[in-house]
Every structure is written in C-alpha cells, then in structure tokens.
C-alpha cells in the first residue's frame, strides 16, 4: 500500500530548503541573470537556490550554456565565505566564487558506525557448523536456492546488516591448491535468525550452466558445496567485509530496495531488523517507523524467496512496507514483453525521483548487474523533466551513501 502522507511531507519539508548548485561554464562572475555575460570556460561557481526555484534556475543555467556538476543541501556545505554573505537563495542575486578543491562532501550516516572488518582472515578462518540447510524455491520453480544457518558461538565473528562473509569450500582446485574464497551477502540481522548473537545466515543459489565449448553441465564449486552441505558439517568462514550496503541508522528513513534473485539477502536482513517482533524487542533504540519499499525481480512465483514472511510483514505493516514484484515469466511489461525489475522502476520513476530528493531516502541495489542500466535510464528520464543530469545527481547521492550498489 502506498502511504499517501509521504508526498505531503515531501512538499512541506522541501519548501524551506536551500540547495547549493555547483556549475561550470557560466559567466565570469556567475551572472545567471545576464544572458550576455561573458562565458567562464574553466573552473566552477556556486549558487544557493531555494527548492521552489530549482526548476526555474536550472533552465536559466542551461540556457546560459552552463553545466550543473553537483547539487547538495546548503545545510551540508559551508558556503558563507563563498556566497558573499547572501541568504536570499536567489541565484540571480548571489555573488558566486570558485569552488575550493578541499571542500568537504556530505558526511555519510553510515560512517558513524563502528564497522567490523576481517575478524577472520583466509589464513586463519573461523570453523563454523551448519545448523540448517533449507530449500527456498517452491515446487515448479527454477533452480535451487538454499537458506543456510551457521553457528558462531565458538568464536568472535560479528557483523552488521549489509555485510558479507567469505566461504572457503572444502577440497582443492585442478592445480591441487585450496579453493579460493567466495563472498556471499549475509541474509540475517546482526543478532542472527535466533536473535541470540550466535548465528549467521546466507541465501545461496546453486550456480549451474552449460559449457559453451562441449555443452556439458558445469556446477559452481562453492555454491554446490554449500547447497549440498549437511547439518553438523564444518565450514571455513572469513570476514566480515563490506561497507557499501550498510543499513542507514535513521528509524524514520525511506529505505528503497531493488533486487533480483539472491540479491534479496541483505534486504532480508534489513526487513527482519525493521519489522520482526523479536528484533524490535532486541533493539529498543531502533524502532523503524519510516517507509521501506522492496522491488523484487524473479522468474516465477515459486522463485519468490522468503515469500510468506515478506507478505506477512506487508500485511502487518501496510503503511510502512511496500512489496512490488517483477515476475519475468508470468507478467508482461507495457510493451507486451517480459516484466523485469527495470520495467517496474520505469513505472514508478516519478515516485522514486520524488523520494530520492528527500535527504532521508536511501536506495540499495543488489543482484544481477544487468539491471543497473535500466534503472539509470528510468531515473534519468524523470530527472531530465526538471533539467537535472541524473549521472551527476546520482554521484552526490553516492557520496552521501544514499545510492548503494552491489551487483554481479
């Protein structure tokens, strides 16, 4: 269900906000109001622009031949010494100056966390025990995907939502050397599936493909090892690693998740932390009350991983969690072809664009790399309606850790 209050809050919160435009190619003194001003061929200038004038001033800058290379909230930048003391926010009345090369970017929320990294390294991995190995693909689905849970009670391995661990499969490669590490996104919260700080879980699809030269079936070494793992069997684990996909701390944030297949792993960790009763009880300082939206691409309905639990959360928290499927072999896009995640993004591009302009919105993308171009194309089309270059705007989001991507 769409929370109708979101749009209203956006308008009221943005009405009083001021943004800093970093522009190159404008008049030598930053004269946005003078169409005949001499063109600045090198360097950049800064303007402060109130939200209500962003579209108008963007068109004015483009008409003058300027190029917007960065947009950020004025609250995140120190511009008092660069804007000649003006507080009006009108680009036509602000004296701009050159951008200093040592200007500080936005401070990412995630940098406030103490992030555990490489507690266990390849030369000295943690030896965990498989506690469970459960099939996630329903009858009639494609392939096999397992949810595996490992015991951590004998060591010091701890992690945060959005991190990964390494697995060293048993045996040796064709050269007689130990197999290399494969990284997998963690699918459990930092407290583990049992909320006792003693386990870690993975969501693993068994890799299987045809050799292009001889047509023989090839199975992935590590994924096959894990999917065939027996309860009680020992596993070599390294890590944790990763800071790209850390969940934002703000309990009132908008969390937008776009994923395909086993790319749902970190999103399961986020959602369980946000909404599961035991997790909420274990985290009194983090009671999620924002908007979480999962856009999930899968080939068939039986391939919807964690389906019952996802839909249970949706039913219990309809105002806080929205679930959108892109089922490629069952649904059609607007052109009559298969429905992939990028088509869902295009359908919802206007809403997504409005959300990413809110400074409490965090986007996470995980899964197949092929979806990235389609997502960018949809967002670029929407941003261009306001005269904004999406690639540059996305760059500012990345700097603020508000556009996070982990694809393969």
Layout of helices and strands:
Blueprint: H1 5-15, E1 18-24, E2 44-50, H2 54-63, E3 67-73, E4 126-135, E5 145-151, E6 164-168, E7 182-185, E8 199-205, E9 208-210, E10 217-219, H3 221-227, E11 234-241, E12 254-260, H4 265-275, H5 277-282, E13 291-298, H6 307-316, E14 321-327, H7 341-347, H8 349-356, E15 361-367, H9 371-384, H10 390-399, E16 403-407
Helix pairs in contact: 7-9, 8-9
Bin the strand percentage: 25-35%
Helical run tally: 10
DSSP strand count: 16
So what's the CATH class of the largest domain? Alpha Beta
Helix/sheet category: alpha/beta
Runs in which pLDDT lies below 50 for 5 or more consecutive residues are 1-15, 27-42, 76-111
Largest sheet: 6 strands, antiparallel
The dominant shape is globular
As a percent range, the share of helical residues equals: 10-25%
Give the averaged pLDDT, no decimals: 82
The figure for the number of domains is: 3
Order of helices and strands: HEEHEEEEEEEEHEEHHEHEHHEHHE
> If strands are numbered along the chain, what order do they take across the biggest sheet?
7-6-11-4-5-8
Q: Mind telling me the C-alpha Rg?
A: 24 Å
CATH topology of the largest domain: Rossmann fold
Cofactor: FAD
GO molecular function, one term: ferredoxin-NADP+ reductase activity
Membrane topology: Peripheral membrane protein
Catalytic activity: 2 reduced [2Fe-2S]-[ferredoxin] + NADP(+) + H(+) = 2 oxidized [2Fe-2S]-[ferredoxin] + NADPH
């Amino acid at each position: 269900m769409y929370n109708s209050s979101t749009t209203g809050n956006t308008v009221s919160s943005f009405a009083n906000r001021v943004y800093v435009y970093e522009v190159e190619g404008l008049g030598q003194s930053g004269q946005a109001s003078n169409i005949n001003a001499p063109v600045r061929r090198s360097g950049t200038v800064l303007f402060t622009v109130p939200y209500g004038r962003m579209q108008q001033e963007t068109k004015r800058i483009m008409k003058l031949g300027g190029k917007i290379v960065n947009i950020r909230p004025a609250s995140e930048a120190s511009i008092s010494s660069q804007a000649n003391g003006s507080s009006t926010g009108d680009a036509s009345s602000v004296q701009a100056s050159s951008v200093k090369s040592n200007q500080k970017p936005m401070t990412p929320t995630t940098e406030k966390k103490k992030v555990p990294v490489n507690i266990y390294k390849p030369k000295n991995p943690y030896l965990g025990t498989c506690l469970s190995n459960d099939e996630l693909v329903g009858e009639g689905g494609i392939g096999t995907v397992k949810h595996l849970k490992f015991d951590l009670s004998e060591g010091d391995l701890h992690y945060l939502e959005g991190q990964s661990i390494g697995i060293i499969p048993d045996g040796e490669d064709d050269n007689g050397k130990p197999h290399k590490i494969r990284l997998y996104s963690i699918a459990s919260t930092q407290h583990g599936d049992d909320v006792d700080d003693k386990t870690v879980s993975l969501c693993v699809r068994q890799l299987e493909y045809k050799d292009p030269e001889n047509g023989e079936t090839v199975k992935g070494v590590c994924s096959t090892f894990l999917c065939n793992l027996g309860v009680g069997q020992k596993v070599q684990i390294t890590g944790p690693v990763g800071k790209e996909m850390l969940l934002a701390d703000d309990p009132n944030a908008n969390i937008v998740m776009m994923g395909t297949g086993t790319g749902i792993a970190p999103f399961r960790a986020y959602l369980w932390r946000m909404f599961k009763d035991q997790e909420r009880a274990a985290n009194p300082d983090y009671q999620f009350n924002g908007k979480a939206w999962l856009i999930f691409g899968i080939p068939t309905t039986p391939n919807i991983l964690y389906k019952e639990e996802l839909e249970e959360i949706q039913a219990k928290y309809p105002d806080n969690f929205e679930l959108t499927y892109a089922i490629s072999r069952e649904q059609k896009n607007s052109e009559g072809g298969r429905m992939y995640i990028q088509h869902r993004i295009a359908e919802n591009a206007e809403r997504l664009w409005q959300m990413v302009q809110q400074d409490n919105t965090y986007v996470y993308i995980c899964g197949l790399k092929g979806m990235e171009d389609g997502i960018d194309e949809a967002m670029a089309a929407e941003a261009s309606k306001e005269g904004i270059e999406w690639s540059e705007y996305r760059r500012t989001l990345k700097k603020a850790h508000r556009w996070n991507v982990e694809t393969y």
